[in-house]
Design goal:
Layout (H helix, E strand, L loop, with lengths): L25 H15 L4 E5 L13 E7 L4 H11 L2 E2 L12 E8 L2 E11 L3 H15 L1 H16 L5 H7 L1 H8 L2
Parallel strand pairs: 2-5
Antiparallel strand pairs: 1-2, 3-4, 4-5
Helix pairs in contact: 3-4
């Protein structure tokens, strides 16, 4: 906790992709991070996405958030999460500056949770795609099982570099998003 009594965003440790069981505390962590970001930048919407937003879905154990800003407010959105302590993921294969991912961690219930905040314009097609994927998996346990099987298969092939691991899931994700 900071001197203000609000949770502190801690440094992020990059780790190889690994298969971690679903942690039922992830939604509480996401709610805390959502409140922090929305308090720092009123007017943005923040949503929990990714595997930790899908009950029972194993994954890397990273709590992914989608920060939706109004067009033209990218710099303000990025500055808001930087003030909280997040840092931009920067590597040759990182997301572009126009669609940054900010990294941080938070301690909750005596555990450290790694965080990804995806900063996306609220009118981007990606917003609908992220929601569609999350909501379809939430509604269909067989999709969750297929998704976790795909993740295990990728890791079994030795692909543990985060961006490469994500790329390997693309075809599955695109198939789920099909009408």
């Amino acid at each position: 906790m900071s001197a203000t009594g609000r949770p502190t965003i801690l440094p992020y440790e990059i780790q190889p992709a690994a298969y971690r069981p679903y942690d039922p505390r992830a939604p509480q962590v996401a709610a805390i991070v959502k409140d922090l970001i929305e308090a720092e930048m009123p007017g943005v919407d923040v949503e929990h996405i990714g595997s930790t937003a899908i009950p029972g879905c194993a994954g890397k154990g990273v709590v992914d958030m989608m920060m939706l800003y109004r067009p033209g407010n990218l710099a303000a959105a990025r500055a808001a999460v930087e003030r909280l302590g997040f840092v931009r993921f920067s590597a040759p294969d990182a997301f572009p500056e126009s669609r940054p991912v900010m990294l941080g961690a938070i301690e909750y219930d005596r555990s450290l949770f790694r965080l990804h905040v995806h900063i996306i314009a609220n009118d981007s097609k990606e917003v609908t795609e992220q929601r569609l994927f999350r909501d379809r998996l939430r509604a269909d346990r067989s999709l969750v099982d297929a998704y976790t099987a795909k993740k295990r298969e990728i890791l079994k092939r030795g692909i543990t570099h985060g961006p490469s691991y994500a790329d390997e899931k693309t075809v599955f994700i695109q198939r789920v998003r099909q009408p």
